């Protein structure tokens, strides 16, 4: 574990003393420390949670398996600020997406983080898709997205001449963001509020004892030398009362490595590719263009980034697990 992290956590001497006394016998002789709050994973979710907790006075330690923040899904996405159209109205996603959109635009404006409200068109390319477009309009309205507008094909093609569609749903409040700058800003603010980031630090599991969660920690580089199926004892035990599991794709498998967690939760993985449009100086579109959503995703869409790069994707392929590379063979 990085020296800075050790320094931060040894300030919780009182908690450490109690925690160390109670850690199970199996881990006797292994170095232990305590922390007020531990956030697992420095993707955009972990960083944002850490910043918020730190701003409320909590002493936060973020443990991240990779060598820096934001190397997982948070840097491999469409960088779209979503309007909140698709989600079922009573869902947390619908609620949080709308509130998050407002907060995100304000956060970016206040700190001059690059972003642009470019708007988005969801398109019906055949008469048969029009009822689906109308259902999306209804769902968006129910969620409180109040600026949506159905356009006839010719109107949509007036604002996007390269497009072909029979009808479109315009979402003016959808936008794009420089996600790396967002994360950099959140990390900086979390650190100003005394959050410590410990990189190359993997949580391999944990156990619960005497009201503490004892996280089992392993140095990420050393993990590469570990034989698969070898019994792995932690190099370090980190004890805390509050853990945020924001480990992204690993969040569920990691939770299952805590004996008290529900082992029945399933995870389903899909993998997709983006395809970059090259050899064009001027992007052919000025809005984000999305098809009617498909099973497992929003459909292969056109995204623009803030440097006018045009990407198509992602496609969706269901896979057995995160290590399944088979679907890349024909790309
Ligand atoms: C193709 C695609 C496109 C998307 N497009 C958009 C979009 O346009 N707009 C939008 O809002 N959202 C989009 N999303 C969703 C968004 O990207 C994710 O919701 C978000 O990035 C998830 O962030 P996270 O912090 O939960 O996960 P991650 O960014 O994956 O971070 C998890 C972190 O945990 C670390 N970690 C994992 N296991 C451990 C461990 N055992 N110990 C320590 N650290 C660990 C990882 O190294 C990683 O850094 C998209 C998602 C995908 C897949």
UniProtKB/TrEMBL annotation:
Q: GO: which molecular function terms?
A: (S)-2-hydroxyglutarate dehydrogenase activity
Keywords from UniProt, A to Z, are: FAD, Flavoprotein, Oxidoreductase
Reaction(s) this enzyme catalyzes, per UniProt: (S)-2-hydroxyglutarate + A = 2-oxoglutarate + AH2
Position of the signal peptide = none
Give the highest taxon in the source lineage.
Eukaryota
InterPro entries assigned to the protein according to its UniProt record, in alphabetical order? FAD-dep_OxRdtase, FAD/NAD-bd_sf
Q: What is its EC number?
A: 1.1.99.2
Q: Which cofactor does it need?
A: FAD
Residues in FAD dependent oxidoreductase domain copies: 36-324
Q: Which family does it belong to?
A: Belongs to the L2HGDH family.
PANTHER family for the chain: L-2-HYDROXYGLUTARATE DEHYDROGENASE, MITOCHONDRIAL (PTHR43104:SF4)
Q: What is this protein called?
A: L-2-hydroxyglutarate dehydrogenase, mitochondrial
The species is Zingiber officinale
| Taxonomic lineage from the root | Eukaryota, Viridiplantae, Streptophyta, Embryophyta, Tracheophyta
């Amino acid at each position: 574990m990085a020296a800075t992290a050790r320094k931060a956590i040894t300030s919780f001497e009182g908690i450490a003393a109690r925690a160390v006394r109670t850690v199970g016998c199996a881990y006797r002789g292994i170095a232990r420390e305590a922390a007020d709050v531990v956030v697992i994973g420095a993707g955009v979710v972990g960083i944002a949670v850490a910043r918020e907790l730190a701003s409320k006075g909590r002493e936060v330690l973020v443990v991240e398996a990779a060598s820096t923040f934001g190397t997982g899904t948070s840097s491999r996405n469409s960088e779209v600020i979503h309007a909140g159209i698709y989600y079922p109205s009573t869902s947390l996603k619908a609620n949080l997406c709308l509130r998050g959109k407002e907060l995100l635009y304000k956060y970016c404006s206040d700190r001059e983080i690059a972003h642009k409200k470019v708007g988005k068109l969801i398109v019906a390319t055949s008469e048969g898709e029009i009822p689906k477009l109308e259902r999306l309009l209804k769902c968006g309205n129910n969620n409180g997205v109040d600026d949506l507008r159905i356009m006839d094909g010719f109107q949509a093609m007036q604002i996007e001449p390269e497009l072909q569609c029979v009808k479109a749903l315009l979402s003016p409040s959808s936008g794009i963001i420089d996600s790396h700058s967002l994360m950099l800003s959140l990390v900086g603010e979390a650190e100003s509020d005394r959050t410590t980031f410990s990189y190359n630090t993997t949580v391999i599991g944990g156990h619960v004892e005497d009201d503490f969660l004892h996280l089992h920690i392993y140095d990420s580089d050393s993990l590469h030398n570990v034989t698969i199926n070898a019994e792995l004892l932690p190099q370090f035990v980190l004890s805390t009362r509050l853990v945020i599991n924001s480990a992204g794709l690993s969040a569920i498998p990691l939770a299952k490595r805590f004996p008290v967690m529900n082992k029945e939760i399933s995870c389903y993985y899909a993998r997709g590719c983006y395809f970059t449009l090259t050899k064009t100086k001027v992007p052919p579109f000025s809005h984000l263009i999305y098809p009617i959503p498909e099973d497992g995703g929003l459909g292969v869409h056109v995204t623009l980034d803030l440097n006018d790069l045009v990407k198509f994707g992602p496609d969706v392929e269901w896979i057995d697990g995160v290590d399944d590379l088979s679907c890349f063979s024909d790309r």
